[in-house]
Amino acid sequence: MLTAVAIAVDGLGFAAWLFLSSVGLTLIYGVMRILNIAHGGFYALGAYSSAWAIGLYTQTGSTIALTYLIIPLAALAVGVIAGLLIERGILRFMYGRDEVLMVLVTYAIFLILEDVTKLIWGTGSMVAYQPAYFLGTIEIFGIPYTIYKLCLVGLAIVVGAVLWWGLNRTRIGKLLLVVIEDREISRALGINVTLFFTVTFVIGVTLGALGGAVTAPQISVVPGIGAEIIVMAFAVIVIGGMGSIGGAIIGAIFVGFARALSVHLYPPAELFSIYLVMAVVLAFKPYGLFSLAEGRKI
């Protein structure tokens, strides 16, 4: 019984973290058809920015409660600054090019961002444990669990709900769906496709940075964390269907619980379990569970 509870709680927590870390990747692909390998670099920037800002703030001796505001602000700063610089400075010149070229370009951006983090914050580790430590733990059926991780579950639900509402219940969201369906028709209708691309990329980068920012209080932030997350985020969106927000939710749940099962029942298979789930899903649904329909042009 206790093992089942531990698997359920850990699986839910890991799924929430995976969703927060990967939803920006699927959003950018869904709108812009760019497989953004640089997503891992934005995740790392968010983690470093959050840890650095929390470290500076806590040195002042002020209340820890305000660190929970620093986390999203750090992600927003990364999204606006890095997102605008890269989209306006590099990617806008690549629109309409071959998808393989876009992958190579974003991979090059990822390598640059890896070096940027080292130049700014060095190669040592950074620790910002205060937000997670301040909330303490709670017992679930006798098993202690970090309250901070439970808060991430709530945050993932809020982010998912806001994205769904924005895409399906607002005028801008419906215009965005038109852009996703056909860029040429959208331009003919007078929709500013370039502006939608810029805003989408900034939001996607902000979400990627948010995944790193909320992770910083739970880990030691070190060089290379961006490479780790891009692999798992890619597995999530491939399972759910690239470009689908709902698919990202389902993919995160699948991967989260597969990982929790392996950790508690057979730890050596922790990493293998993620790719096993992906292989099984793709064997029956080659484009993922909720892949977006591709329009056929004549």
TrEMBL record:
Q: So which domain of life are we looking at?
A: Bacteria
Q: Which UniProt keywords apply?
A: Amino-acid transport, Cell membrane, Membrane, Transmembrane, Transmembrane helix, Transport
Cellular compartments per GO CC: plasma membrane
In the bilayer, the protein is annotated as: Multi-pass membrane protein
Q: Which Pfam families match?
A: BPD_transp_2
Membrane-traversing stretches? 6-29, 41-59, 65-87, 99-121, 141-167, 188-213, 219-239, 272-293
Molecular function in Gene Ontology: transmembrane transporter activity
The alphabetized list of GO BP terms reads: amino acid transport
Q: What is this protein called?
A: Branched-chain amino acid ABC transporter permease
Organism lineage reads as: Bacteria, Pseudomonadati, Pseudomonadota, Gammaproteobacteria, Thiotrichales
